[in-house]
Amino acid sequence: MKAIGSTTFGGPDVLRELELPTPEAGPGEVRIRVHAAAVNPTDALFRAGAYAARTTDVPPPYLPGMDAAGVIDQLGPGADGRLSVGQRVVALVMPTRPQGGAYAEQIVVPAESVVPAPAGTDHAEASTLLMNAATARLALDTLALPRGATVAVTGAAGAVGGYAIELAKADGLTVVADAAPHDRDLVRGFGADHVVDRGKDVATRVRELVPDGVAGLVDGSDQREEAVPAVADGGTLVALRGWQGPAEGGVTVAPVFVAGVRGDTALLDALRLQAEQGVLSLRVAKVLPASDAAEAHRLLAAGGLRGRLVLDFS
């Protein structure tokens, strides 16, 4: 089967087409014929070696990719009775495992990490859901704010940020979000109640709206210390890239990692349902052939994308 990966860590050009043996589904696993794999910032970090410490026991090649959409073509013994051969599905994939990530024509994953694809979506759209939406859900669950509370979201025009706004509004929260001038309408469209200018002074602008500070903040743009002053004493900043603080003013920094919910089938399926209901917006920036993975990673590094790049493995 065709896969996209590398035998070493480095820049986008280390990615190349590989021919690998077709995997077989083991107990509790399913095999998916992948049609689309979303390209996420975590894929670029993985490719560059940011997670090399987690792959010391994993021989190359290294296959990036955390989001796959396709069709089940094999069920392993004891696989989840929810799923069936021929079913369109999405999967949350961990690239640091020996089998690698989602950049392959066929992948084997635990059945618990697989849910039906949202009805009415194509493979490219479906592939943009799970990793980013699950991260946003985990962030909000970590904050555990009551209905009516105010949450701030940085990086609001990005994939995690957009999902965080939509999920927060579904939770009954008031949302203050940041945006560049050209993204204000986009961020308002996600449901943000208030939009402030993005940048290093974002905390000051949030405080102008909420003088006592917000109860919680989802730091989608990884602003770390710059964002902390937006949070009220006793509040929480959720960090998405592993930052642990320290933070001043009695603010708690809570790093979250989506790997922690990779087997939470109920959470993943709830996100699928919210995508079907239109609560979550699936955004595709561009679909590229899988063989253009290096170019996709270059486009990702260039920034300015609104929606996800997707690799086509059809």
Summarize the structure.
By secondary structure, the protein is α/β, with parallel strands linked by helices. It is 24% helix and 27% strand. Helix 3 packs across helix 4 and helix 3 crosses helix 7.
Question: What can you tell me about this protein's structure?
Answer:
The strands form three sheets. Strands 3, 4, 5, 6, 7, 14 and 15 form a seven-stranded mixed beta sheet that branches. The protein has a six-stranded parallel beta sheet with strand order 10-9-8-11-12-13, with helices on both faces. Helix 4 links the parallel strand 8 and strand 9 (174-179). The chain is α/β, with parallel strands linked by helices and 314 residues long. The protein contains eight helices and 15 strands. It folds into two domains: 2-129 and 282-312, Medium-chain alcohol dehydrogenases, catalytic domain (Quinone Oxidoreductase, Chain A, domain 1, Alpha-Beta Complex); 138-259, Rossmann fold (3-Layer(aba) Sandwich), CATH 3.40.50. The chain starts with a strand and ends with a strand. Helix 3 (130-143) crosses helix 7. It is 24% helix and 27% strand. This is NADP-dependent oxidoreductase. One of its GO terms (molecular function) is oxidoreductase activity. Its EC number is 1.-.-.-. Residues 10-311 form the Enoyl reductase (ER) domain. InterPro entries: ADH-like_N (IPR013154), ER (IPR020843), GroES-like_sf (IPR011032), NAD(P)-bd_dom_sf (IPR036291).
